[in-house]
Design goal:
Strand order of the largest sheet: 6-7-5-8-9
Radius of gyration: 26 Å
Order of helices and strands: EEEEHHEHHEEHEHE
CATH superfamily of the largest domain: Reverse transcriptase/Diguanylate cyclase domain
CATH architecture of the largest domain: 2-Layer Sandwich
Oligomer: single chain
Length: 240
């Protein structure tokens, strides 16, 4: 079997003298998956060739169905613009991490980040530039994270980062690194203005829900907005 010009699997031995039967199994853009069937020394019988072509057609249908299923599954949990998880998937991951933190007594924090005055970028430069800024910001966030951290775009210009096994101090330090890196990020703008972001951090407190935790991070975020933006603010423990 050959995929995109490279051999990916091989079974059995070939016999010289007869060319292989080439069957196309899948095609996506310029990526083509082909199956090469090499006949025995006496060549393919007509019924064998017909059977091989029928089996290949069924395999092609199965591969396409699997690809479409994977695509639908990915679209259901992924933000199309940035490639980060969407709000639905982020909340699922947050729920799982809350269960783990509650069971093992480990710290868990959430960071919310919101690009400052982002509406001006869209108004002045157009939505295509705004979209590119969002993509670059998402990539910048990913570059600062560990494998276990979960970044998501949860709406508009608002992003969230799930930081397991990390207290509020550690999460705030991470948010600060992202904030500083943003000032150095290359932007697709036609003037020297910079893009900044404000971050809110909250650490999980036993007994609260994911919505409660996000709400406290949101309180910290908007406290930073009201104090001049381009800051990192940490919300205190939930009130009992």
């Amino acid at each position: 079997m050959v995929e995109d010009g490279e051999e990916v699997s091989w079974i059995g031995q070939t016999h010289g003298g007869h060319p292989p039967l080439m069957l196309e199994l899948a095609r996506q853009d310029d990526n083509v998956t082909r199956l090469f069937l090499y006949p025995a020394a006496e060549g393919f019988a007509a019924e064998t060739r017909e059977l091989a072509e029928w089996l290949a057609s069924q395999a092609a249908i199965a591969l396409e169905n699997a690809r479409l299923h994977h695509l639908v599954q990915r679209q259901a949990v992924t933000d199309d613009l940035t490639g980060l998880v969407n709000r639905r998937r982020f909340m699922e991951a947050l729920g799982s991490e809350i269960t783990r933190a509650s069971t093992f007594g480990t710290p868990l924090s959430v960071i919310l980040g919101d690009l400052d005055d982002f509406k001006l970028v869209n108004d002045v430069f157009g939505h295509h530039v705004g979209d590119e800024v969002l993509r670059r910001f998402a990539k910048l966030i990913e570059n600062h994270l560990r494998e276990v951290d979960v970044p998501g775009r949860i709406g508009g210009e608002e992003f969230a980062i799930l930081v397991p096994d990390t207290d509020a101090t550690g999460a705030a330090a991470l948010a600060e690194r992202v904030r500083r890196s943003l000032s150095e990020m290359a932007l697709p703008l036609r003037d020297p203005r910079t893009i900044t972001a404000t971050f809110g951090v909250a650490q999980f407190v036993a007994g609260e829900s994911g919505d409660d935790l996000l709400r406290r991070a949101d309180v910290a975020l908007y406290r930073g907005k009201s104090h001049g933006k381009n800051t990192v603010s940490v919300e205190g423990a939930a009130q009992t």
